[in-house]
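Incident review: delayed structure delivery

Summary: a single-chain prediction request sat in the queue longer than the usual turnaround. Root cause was a stuck worker, restarted by the on-call engineer. No data loss occurred. The affected request and its eventual output are reproduced below so the record is complete for anyone auditing the incident later.

Affected input:
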Amino acid sequence: MSSGKQSGAVGIKVMPAARLKPNKWLERTLIVLALVGSLAVLGLYQDLYDRYQSHANPKQAVYGVWYERDAAPFARDSFELTPDKVVIDNRVVATDFELTRDELSFYVGPTLYRYHILNEAKTELRQLSPTHYNPIFVLSGKHKNNLL
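Output delivered after worker restart:
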């Protein structure tokens, strides 16, 4: 046996640095593919969530004429929701509205009108904005009982 010091790394072959360097083109392509795949998955989940919301919370539930409750007939505010428009005082003021589980909203020009849904049947709304007055509206339409 030899009398010199033995190294602890016996049998390890050292590769030149040039052979260990990864291919940058392949690395960047895999990163781009991972990002595109992630965005596709997020888009599919968003679509799935939107479909669930439209099934669980259909806009058809709020179609009809909404009248202000506990107001004199000559001063009563009202609006109508249909699939393609929002009508106030016999004028189309919006062509779409947003409906979430507990809130209805639409824009009339720059003004946002927001209403909180008060019951599970979606037959009563409390106006949240504009905030000068917070009346309660009830639904009276073809597919609902007349609530006034």
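Verification: The chain has a mean pLDDT of 83.
Action items: add queue-age alerting; document worker restart procedure.
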